[in-house]
Design goal:
This protein has 356 residues and is of the alpha/beta class. It is built from nine helices and 23 strands. A hairpin with a 2-residue loop joins strand 19 and strand 20. One of its GO terms (biological process) is aerobic electron transport chain.
Length: 356
């Protein structure tokens, strides 16, 4: 049997399995999925788990079940492209005929001293559980500092305001205004929501150091019972160690067909791939759809298209607690209850169609 190996059970791998199983996988091919956990995790909702407003169980989606799908629970330690092998932490070697790398990302600390040691994360399920435990154990009237006011930081700060109203929540943002990459109307709405709900937004911040007692903003010390880092990501170390061409963010440069230049057997999906859009679950799913199209053509010995259609993203939806939110759908800005309801609906639909 030929082997299609999927590294990581994220959004891209889930979509690829959904499209190939049960009817579109060649009879002579099996799928091997390698992941550390026995279920797909809803990473877009990690902020809620960290804040204590969603349960661990709520963020799990079962992997597909099929006799031609084998799941290995392990950590990938090395990808040996020349040998067509993947090395696992238990010294096991998995060989592949086709490989899809979807191992995701980890925090990028921008060389800030102490940030890698003294901050909490919401990048993996295990890290998010640890962050939840730390927040849960903070004394009343304690202080939580969140570094980075992108989507993750904003959603975490707003959810934490609702789950622990006794805490002081500080959100550190490098920009002039929060979510500055979005239309100003949206940014102003979110910044004002935080102002009205007692979250301290520190704009034009520059975190210069983190230690066990807090952080330094422009070298000024701010005591914190927990510092949570949401200020940028990079591909995981295994991908960073690959001897392939990468962009300035460390993401792997691909052909228009999503495989490595000069290697039609290795695809990269999601956060590790260099694409014209910011990494997102939507983008990983759209990319996976196109990868499946290419795989089918390869298996059928059909010519590959020189270009693929532009991946269409439906927009961005963010939450501000359980009742408010914000969104950008094309050119239209959504504020208030509607985008929050839409986000809940999208999440329900994803879980329903994924069989959980």
């Amino acid at each position: 049997m030929k082997k299609l190996v999927l590294l990581g059970g994220g959004y891209g791998s889930m979509r690829a399995m959904q499209r190939l199983l049960p009817n579109d996988l060649p009879d002579d091919t099996e799928i091997i999925l390698i992941d550390r956990l026995p279920y797909h995790c809803l990473k877009t909702e990690y902020y809620a788990l960290a804040a204590g407003t969603a349960s661990d169980q709520h963020l799990r989606v079962s992997f597909p079940e099929d006799p031609r799908l084998t799941i290995k629970y392990a950590t990938v330690t090395d990808i040996r492209l020349e040998d067509k092998q993947v090395a696992l932490e238990n010294d096991e070697i998995v060989e592949y005929d086709k490989l899809i790398i979807g191992l995701g990302c980890e925090d990028k600390y921008h060389n800030v001293p102490g940030a890698d040691v003294h901050t909490y994360s919401i990048q993996t399920m295990n890290q998010t559980r640890r962050t939840y435990e730390a927040i849960n154990n903070i004394r009343p009237q304690g202080t939580v500092s969140i570094v980075g006011a992108g989507l993750s930081g904003v959603e975490l700060a707003s959810e934490l305001r609702e789950s622990r109203p006794d805490l002081t929540v500080k959100l550190f943002d490098r920009g002039e205004i929060i979510l500055s990459m979005f239309p100003k109307k949206l940014s102003v709405y979110v910044q004002n929501w935080f102002l009205e709900h007692g979250v301290d937004v520190i704009n034009k911040s520059n975190i210069t150091k983190v230690d066990e007692n807090g952080l330094y903003n422009h070298d000024e010390f701010i005591q914190s019972d927990a510092v949570i880092w949401t200020a940028g990501v990079q591909p995981v170390e295994v991908v960073r160690n690959l001897n392939v061409e990468k962009d300035k963010s460390g993401r792997v440069i691909l052909t228009p067909q999503h495989f490595l230049p000069n290697n039609e057997d290795v695809f990269v999906v999601g956060d590790c791939a260099s694409l014209p859009h910011a990494p997102s679950a939507q983008l990983a799913e759209g990319q996976a759809e196109q990868i499946v199209t290419i795989l089918k053509k390869q298996w059928n010995n059909e010519p590959l298209p020189a270009e693929l259609p532009k991946i269409k993203l439906k927009g961005v939806l963010g939450s501000l607690g359980k009742k408010h939110g914000f969104g950008l759908m094309g050119e239209r800005t959504l504020l208030g209850r509607v985008p929050r309801v839409l986000k809940s609906g999208v999440l329900w639909m994803y879980k329903y169609h994924s069989g959980s």
